Amino acid sequence: QVQLVESGGGLVQAGGSLRLACAASGLTFMRYVMGWFRQAPGKEREFVAGITWSGSNTYYADSVKGRFSISRDNAKNTVYLQMNSLKPEDTAVYYCVVDRNDGMTIATSARWYDYWGQGTQVTVSS
Q1: In the predicted model, is pLDDT for residue 102 greater than 90?
Q2: What confidence tens digit (pLDDT) does each residue in 46-73 have?
């Protein structure tokens, strides 16, 4: 049974930083693209960042490029999202996702990701 468990969310002031972590189990972690999505109240889910199986390639939404960084530790079955220079508009529930269809192509559409974590709340105050 695949499980993705996020941690690291919380309340932070604008300009601050948070580091999210997602521990995966029940799958061969190192084979797959991992990613992060987010959903703010009243808004659709949106792609935030993705990383290929080896960590050699990453892709970011324009809204977070230069501020967020995704990484992974295949030995620990964990993917991270370092979030710097946070803005109030980054407030959302952040979800860890896995794309078991591919290890090399980072999809930005939610339909490609077949397992989702329960989400962790990130709130950025102004």
Answers
A1: no
A2: 999 999 999 999 999 999 999 999 999 9
Q: Tell me the C-alpha distance between 101 and 37, whole Å.
A: 17
Q: Is the Cβ–Cβ distance between 49 and 58 less than 8 Å?
A: yes
7: amino acid identity, one letter: S
What band does 101 get if pLDDT is binned at 50, 70 and 90? confident
Which residues lie below 8 Å from residue 56, measured CB to CB, with a gap of 6+? none
Tokens coding 75:
């030995």
Q: What is the pLDDT of residue 20?
A: 98
59 near 93, Cβ under 8 Å?
Answer: no
Local structure of 31: helix, strand or coil:
helix
| Contact (Cβ atoms closer than 8 angstroms) between residue 37 and residue 65 | no
pLDDT at 79 over 90: yes
Buried-state track 16-55, b at ≥16 Cβ within 10 A, e below 16: eebebbbbbeebebeebbbbbbbeeeeeebebbbbbbbee
Compute φ and ψ for 110, nearest 5 degrees.
-60, -25
Q: Which two tokens stand for residue 33?
A: 């693209």
Interatomic CA distance for residues 30 and 43, integer angstroms: 32
